Amino acid sequence: MDSVPGLLRIGELSRRVGVSDHVLRAWENRYGLLSPVRSAGGFRLYSEHDERRVLRMQAELANGLSAAQAARVALADELPPGTGLPEVRAVPANPAAMDGAAAAFGAALDAMDEPGAHGPLDQLLNEFTVETVLRDVVIPYLHDLGERVARGEAGIGQEHFASHVIRGRLAGLARGWGGGQGPLAVLACPPDEHHDLALMVFGIVLARNGWRIRYLGANTPITDLLRIAADTTPAEIVLAAAVPERLTAIVAELRELASAAPVALAGAGASQAISDEVGAQLLAGDPVTEAVRLARSQAPS
pLDDT (tens digit, 9 = 90+) per residue, 85-107? Predict the structure, then answer.
């Protein structure tokens, strides 16, 4: 093997920091975060300094900085004074700016103004991390809209419109999520469950943490999941349901599925009781938090 003591190939660096090699290459190319050397065989090798910068960047992303800002903070840590690097404050992004853009985004969706919704969302994605926007803007809006529909304060047509716009943006963020070499997650909703946007959010964040996603979406027969489990041996099968009945109606099938592959249940319809009954893991938090937690739980120690 072409190796140098103390230096790492990108695959090993990826395993250590829990970030996919695709993301690491993007951070290297876009922000100059990594400074590899070439081995005699031409392979790129990375040092402990590269590893520390990646870990620092992850911490700043979790604080709400954009990727560009987080990279500059991570690089500034190892540069001597007077190098000309502009100062970047390592603090969470301005919540007032988020509130204003989030309000404009929601108001445009409520008014069925698609162009008006894209502008604030673009602003949010430019100023905050994808994870922050999904967790603090998109998911709360969907939850609030669902409650308003249930109370009769918003119509089904309005919900369909907003879902269509948000689905289109999520599909853009999900592009390429099936590639790479990371653990495979199969994501689906059980039979008769058609609310899958939160599951898409979960998949996007999981993919950004190095996983490969096979997305089956709404109303998936359990027989299909059993075949996929046998053919692909996924690291996790995640089923999301908005109401408990979608899961309690298929307890026997879920138990069979959980005997074939690791299964996790998510969404408002999942509970610890149902999870225990079928032998599944419960993902009780919001989809962004649970995706990060699952990725970290599977990362090499």
Answer: 333 333 344 566 678 899 999 99
Q: How far apart are CA 229 and CA 294, in angstroms?
A: 19
Complete domains list, the chain, with CATH:
10-76 (1.10.1660.10), 95-174 (1.10.1240.10), 184-298 (3.40.50.280)
Q: What is the pTM of this model?
A: 0.70
